[in-house]
Structures are given as C-alpha cells and as structure tokens.
C-alpha cells in the first residue's frame, strides 16, 4: 500500500478525510482520523459559528476557532497529520490561510476556485499546499500559474470528481456527461500533468482522488488508475467522532438514492445534497429570508440570493434537518449505521 508523506510525517493509510463545512469536520473528526493514520482535515468555512461573538464579528470568531479546533485535534493526535480545507471563494480566504499556518497546519487544501495566491500566503512556512482540481484543464492552469509566478509547484494534488458532495467543480451539464470510464480517463490525464511538473522540480507529487469513494472497491478502482491515495468525506459523516449533530448523521442513514440530487447553491455553483423541505421550497422558486450577512463569500449579494448558505449550513450541523442544507456525496444513501473512524478506515482498506 502506498502511503502519503507530508513533511517528515508518513500516513499509515493513503487517505485524506475531506474537509466539510460548516462544522461537519472540525477538531474531533480531524484528530481522530489523524490518530488512526490518515490525514485529518478541518474545514474553516464559518468554523466559528458556535462562538458567542459570531453574529457580531464572524471574521474574528472564525480566526479564533481555526486555532482552537487545531488544539482539539492535536490533543487527540499529537503527532498525526492535520490540516485545513480553505475555500478560495471565502471572503477571508487569505486571513484563514495565515491563521492556519500560525496554528501549525501540516497541509492546506484549497478548492472552490483556483488558489492562485496560496504559495505567497504560505511562503516561509513548513505547511504543504494542495489545490483541488476537477479537470486536466484546471490542473494545467493552476500548476502553470504557480510555476511561472512563484517558481514552485504543489506538494500534493486532490482530484475531485463528479460524484463528490457539496460544491462541485463542474457545470451541471458536465455532471451528466461523465461516466465512470470517461472520468477515469480524465484522472489519468491529470496524473500525467502532475507528474510532468514533479519531474521539472525533481520531486514526486502525490495525487489523491476524491468523489464517490465509499468502500474498498472504490479505493481499488482509483488506485488502479494510478492514484496515490483517496480523499473520503461522506463516509466519515456517519461516524461517532464526526462533529455534526446526530440528526444530521441520521439524515444520511435515512436517505434513499433518489433523495440525493444536484441543487443550485447561492454561490452560483452546482452542489449535491439531500432533498428536504428547504430544498423543495427553493426548487419551487421561493426566496427564503435570512439573517444579517455574515460575510462568508467574496462574491455574494444578500439581496439577490434565494437563501443564505451560512444560515442553512449552520441549521444543518445543529440538527435542524428540515431547514438545513444537507450537502452529501453521491453514495450517502449507502450509509446504514453509525460507525467509528477506525472501523471506516479498516473497511476502506480491507
């Protein structure tokens, strides 16, 4: 089994636990995955939602939580590999990256846009950097940009496929056109592109595949394509250690395959979620009232959005599953019970 090397640390399983916001993957889940020998990832998306000052000053609440959640994770796994997922689309993206470096992140993974400034924001630190890409074209764009502007390349690359949960790096029509076989060919192209930049810099850049990785057969399939590891998110939601409310976890267990659909996010990107009363109202054209803006996204006009993504994701993580946005991967319906992180990892690599 290949293992992933981050700095001077090596995983026992070639696995990254995917970052899930708001509040789904915080210090407890990330620390537990790191303790078992994977890479634990904390999502910084509105990470400070439980802070008493969140409504008054969300930016500072989030910065405080970036530090405190890392401390929680490190208490569970002092020597494990722990990092952050920081969306490029966040208004405070740069501040989150700097706070993550200060908190001692082993790695920062960035998606929801191309993280063009990530090398500059982490310069001089030991923190490794990894972009999330969905196509060979996007891989070439970001790696070429980093090469030309910063004279450096990625330490790791995450390929997020069309079966992933949450926001997706595809147009809606693209999601319908990809098959398992055709996207497998796209994965091979991305791996070849990444290999080329690794050769240029005299290093080996690991490539990790995400999206629709739920069991050991999925792991074997992407490893056979040449991947160095997998990123798994949905499977960890229904674990004891996941930071979400039990009612959120039960929504996964109770969902059927038909309940999981592509929805339109206020961000303007397609996303995958469980259809619930909130989504039905939105799909019927209703505009949902929301709280005063918490400044989560760089590009958002509160007067134009059909519903507030911060409000709906906070409702979800707190267990208000009727009103919340229940992001999930395409195979969430396979969830049948609450497991432990250890059981999930053993099953994935059985």
Structural account:
- The chain starts with a strand and ends with a helix.
- The chain is of the alpha/beta class and 350 residues long.
- The protein has helices at 27-35, 58-76, 93-103, 118-122, 136-150, 172-177, 180-201, 216-224, 234-237, 246-254, 277-283, 309-317, 341-348, and strands at 5-6, 9-10, 15-17, 39-43, 81-85, 107-110, 128-133, 157-160, 166-167, 207-210, 229-232, 260-264, 270-274, 326-327.
- Helix 1 packs parallel to helix 2 (58-76), helix 2 (58-76) packs parallel to helix 3 (93-103) and helix 5 packs parallel to helix 7 (180-201).
- Helices cover 38% and strands 15% of the residues.
- An eight-stranded parallel β-sheet has the order 3-11-10-8-7-6-5-4. Strands 9, 12, 13 and 14 form a four-stranded antiparallel β-sheet that branches.
- The longest helix has 22 residues, at 180-201.
User: So what's the oligomer here?
Assistant: single chain
- How do the strands of the widest beta sheet line up side by side? 3-11-10-8-7-6-5-4
In percent, how helical is the residue content? 25-40%
Query: What's the Cα radius of gyration?
Result: 19 Å
The residue ranges in which pLDDT falls below 50 over 5 or more consecutive positions are none
Give a brief description:
Helices cover 38% and strands 15% of the residues. The chain has 350 residues and is of the alpha/beta class. The mean pLDDT is 94.
